From TrEMBL:
It comes from Penaeus vannamei. This is Putative insulin-like peptide receptor. InterPro entries: FN3_dom, FN3_sf, Ig-like_fold, Rcpt_L-dom, Rcpt_L-dom_sf. Keywords: Receptor. Pfam families: Recep_L_domain (PF01030). CDD domains: FN3. Residues 282-292 have a biased composition (Basic and acidic residues). Residues 7-57 form the Receptor L-domain domain. Residues 274-318 are annotated as: Disordered.
Length: 318
């Protein structure tokens, strides 16, 4: 409320209040407002609808006011003051979407524009809570195009996309007439929860083996469950034993090569490799013999075997 002396004839001035929506509640107050001298000046209040100003004029019993004193054009010109109820429904659609169905109002002209406003809401919200010059209510707005519905069905549909799964949203619909800025329609605030989706992976996976036959697993829930996590699926895959080669193993001994060949064959059988083998068992024996001989023709570096122990059977070659 602003009080300034524009002229000696004005004793009550309401001027240039961008977010003023209502005045006092005149019903049941038990007292009255009296302006003994002067008139009122009410201008440039874009969200103050004219019927609130008329209630103020009637409460003061003030007469003889003109358009210059109280403007019916520049008060309430930024909001739909003559609002009619608008029927709308919101339901979950596909993943991350909501379907909004709006029944077009017969009281609005055909050129009326419909807007869907939505935001996340864990609890019920008010349209005007925190409304101020520096407030951010967080409402996102999407226009419902005229091609989204049919004139015969008198309904317009809109799918809100890019929403978070399994999240509660508040939605309401507003309609404005391009021909008359004072006419509009608005629905109640509706609520809907988007459909759940696949959760992200669990985090902090740790394991410990307390004995040779058990493994204990621990993890934390996923950062984005995207719904209610009812159970976890644990997959176990048995991996074949990979042979470990001692660092001091002598590859020039035939029994060492036989040991390595046996391990490789067992590994291939465990993995059930279906690829065609490039070497036959006979070829493996040939390669082993060539490797034992060494030399550049065998394709390997020559190695010198340690001296044969005296107890070794005769005919054993290094």
């Amino acid at each position: 409320m602003t009080r300034v002396a524009l002229a000696r004839s004005y004793s009550l001035v309401i001027l240039d209040n961008p977010h003023l929506r209502a005045l006092w509640n005149w019903t049941g107050r038990g007292r009255r407002l009296a302006v003994e001298r002067g008139k009122m000046f009410v201008h440039s209040n874009p969200r103050l609808c004219f019927h609130h100003i008329e209630a103020l004029v009637n409460a003061t019993n003030m007469t003889g006011l003109s358009e210059t004193d109280v403007s019916s054009t520049y008060n309430g010109d930024k909001v739909p003051c003559k609002v009619t109820p608008l029927e709308a429904r919101v339901t979950p659609h596909l993943y991350g979407t909501l379907l909004v169905e709006v029944a077009t109002s017969a009281r609005l002209p055909p050129d009326a524009v419909y807007y869907v406003n939505y935001k996340k809401a864990e609890k019920n919200v008010s349209l005007y809570e925190g409304d101020g010059p520096c407030s951010d209510q967080g409402w996102s707005t999407t226009e419902v195009g005229p091609g989204n519905g049919t004139a015969l069905a008198r309904r317009r549909d809109l799918i809100i996309v890019n929403l978070e799964p399994f999240t509660r949203y508040a939605v309401y619909v507003k309609a404005y007439s391009l021909a008359a800025s004072g006419k509009g329609a608005q629905s109640d605030v509706l609520y809907a929860v988007t459909r759940p989706y696949h959760p992200t992976e669990p985090v902090g996976l740790e394991w410990v083996s307390r004995n040779r036959s058990t493994v204990a697993l621990e993890w934390r829930p996923p950062r984005r469950p995207n719904g209610r996590v009812a159970h976890y699926l644990v997959s176990l895959q048995l991996l074949p034993d990979t042979p470990r080669i001692p660092p001091d193993l002598n590859f020039c001994r035939p029994e060492t090569r036989e040991y390595i060949d046996g391990k490789m064959l067992a590994l291939a059988e465990a993995e059930k490799v279906s690829l065609a083998r490039r070497k036959t068992p006979a070829a493996k024996e040939d390669v082993r013999d060539e490797g034992a001989k060494g030399g550049p023709e065998g394709g390997e570096e020559s190695c010198q075997a340690p001296p044969t122990p005296p107890a070794a059977p005769a005919g054993t070659r290094a």
